Amino acid sequence: MHVLTEIVFDFTSFFAVATALVLSHELGHYLAARANGVRVDVFSIGFGPELVGRNDRAGTRWKLCAIPLGGYIKMFGEDDPSLDERNRAVSFQGKGLGRRAIIAVAGPLANFVFAALLIAALIAFLGASRGVSFSIAGAALLLCKAIALTWQLVVGTAAAVTHFLLGAHGPHQLVGPIRLAQVTGTFAHKGILVLTGVTAILSVNLGVTNLLPIPSLDGGHLLFYLAEAVRGRPVGKQTETYAMRIGLFLVITLLALGTWNDLVHFGILGLA
């Protein structure tokens, strides 16, 4: 019974952290889309059947779905270039290259901002616990320090990801959702401050990973936009579709490999 309770606690902590990270990421895309005049049809946390949802005045369907890993926004006209002039004006495809790139990069950027805010909150709390009071100038300095620490995390994470892609670390070191849940639960047991710090680190990891030039990730979209800027015209629809399928296959393969490593690590497959 104790083991079951621990498993439930670990996965509950993991899903709570994952939801916060996905929410901040997709909120970045959403705000950038709305700021650039794009209508957003769906803002979903999770995939699969909808559990609960509502429509806002702007026509966006906000919903929570049954599979709580990941999320997405669906922008109007995202996959339909054949729109009349009126509808094209509020569609994603109707926006210029620069605006589409801003919308794509806004998700990872939101993860970095979220991490910086969490780090700033940690510094402020630790300072307050020691009797430190912050003036306006002190608060600005605190925020600058949080941004600097976040940037260090970004650079360190990017270096680690690069080393992995270059083969410096074997595929057996890839961690999947099961071990991530265990690690999250372990840190959650240590208290909210420790969990906040871990959430900031994971937020940076999510932002950096999404900037990889892999089709189906934000970095893949940016790669297509770069190709469009160089060629003077968009990449062919069929080419983009095939590239997206390959990118999705790669992401699923990495997730499956990480899950396999987790199962081996815990001896579930009898291979540890």
Give an overview in words.
There is one protein chain. The protein has 8 helices and 2 strands; from the N terminus they run αββααααααα. It is mostly helical. It folds into 2 domains: 205 residues, no CATH class; 55 residues, no CATH class. The protein has a two-stranded antiparallel ribbon. β1 and β2 form a beta hairpin. The model has no long low-confidence stretch (mean pLDDT 87).
Q: Major sheet: size, sense and barrel closure?
A: 2 strands, antiparallel
Give the domain tally.
2
Distance between the termini: 24 Å
**Portion in strands:** 5-15%
> From the alpha-carbon coordinates, what is the Rg to the nearest angstrom?
21 Å
Structural class: mainly alpha
Q: Concise description?
A:
With 272 residues, this protein is mainly alpha-helical.
List keywords for this structure.
single chain, 272 residues, mainly alpha, 2 domains, two-stranded antiparallel sheet, 8 helices, 65% helix, 11% strand, globular
